Amino acid sequence: MEARTNARSRGRRKPVQNYVIYKEKNKQNVLSCACSLITHTMQMTKGNNNLLVYMDEMLHSIFFLGYIHYPRLAPERFFQKPETIKNLRNMFPGPFEQYRSHLPTRTPFSILLDMMKIIHQTEERIIAELVILLNNLKFPIPLHKSGNIYEQFYTLESTVICVCYSDSDPERYYGASLCCRKGNSKTIMIDVSCLRTWHDLVSHAVMSFCSGGRGDGITFPKSVKCQAYIRGSNGYTEKRPCSKCHQLFNLNNADQNEAKHPYGNCAEAECFSKLLMENQQIRENTRIDNHTEEKLQNLRRSTKARLIKQLQNVGIQINNDFHFYSTNTHG
After folding, report:
1. Helix and strand counts by DSSP (H, E) for the chain
2. What pLDDT is stored for residue 329 in this prediction?
3. Is 312 helix (H, G, I), strand (E, B) or coil?
4. Which of 96, 155, 210, 306 makes a 20 to 30 Å CA pair with 183?
5. CB 218 within 8 A of CB 249
6. CA-to-CA separations, 243 to 251, 257, 266, in angstroms, rounded
7. How far is CA 286 from CA 140, 154, 222, 291, in A?
8. What does the pLDDT look like over 159-196, one tens digit per residue?
9. 271 pLDDT above the threshold of 90
10. Run of H or E including 230
11. What is the dihedral sign for C-alpha 125, 126, 131, 137?
């Protein structure tokens, strides 16, 4: 009897021990990935002062995500040398001062993607150079190892990137999936993007599905093309849209298997939003059948209420008045 009891006790302890080990490895993983990302992107800014504003925004986004991480990670935890902290604080005071009071409007990887576009310009070079950078960063591949939740570590890399364009517009628009993995950080960044970052039509579509209702999908002109890419051991390979992107954006050739991530997580949301903001012709010929200003505002109110609760869950108290981080207004 005693032997069976001891065996049951050991069986109960093992998952707890695994979780503790996982949590510690996960913490160390996000710290090392963030430190590596900051170091390499700072090197990218050398000789190009136009990129410093992106570095500023990236630092704030990383610090915010560290603050709402469990356990909390203060900005100082992302650096190994005190002089590095001092130098960055002097160059970029805003992120250090406002990571607890102001919300980021993008994830670090989304900001990185914009920097890569400025430097490398063409789709082929952006993807090729991004693979080289991520190899230098030593971000793990694959990001998810099936069958073992304790090996699904949190990095700041977006699993998928996406590019969209119109036949009548040579410009390419890039987006990244949310790199927040799970929990409060992912839903917080989706809601923030709906309220502040994305075009109204993309925000409407995502919020309508997030609200639990029937959902209102977007119909783009036939001239709009879109392709997602996922990184593996051999670089980026093409990826079909998921079932939720099919619902949100009426994309063809979608994978109809159930997508486990929430609406708005995918890279398509960001690149379509950029396309709508920049291309007036596409904007005028894109529609949501049930789109009205009244419905959009109702969706915004419910999203805002949900976001306030999510922020309270991570220790950020906001009384109906959001402050969003901007490199033009800090300091």
Report:
1. 12, 4
2. 46
3. helix
4. 96
5. yes
6. 9, 6, 11
7. 39, 36, 10, 11
8. 899 999 999 888 999 999 987 765 688 999 999 999 99
9. yes
10. strand 224-232
11. positive
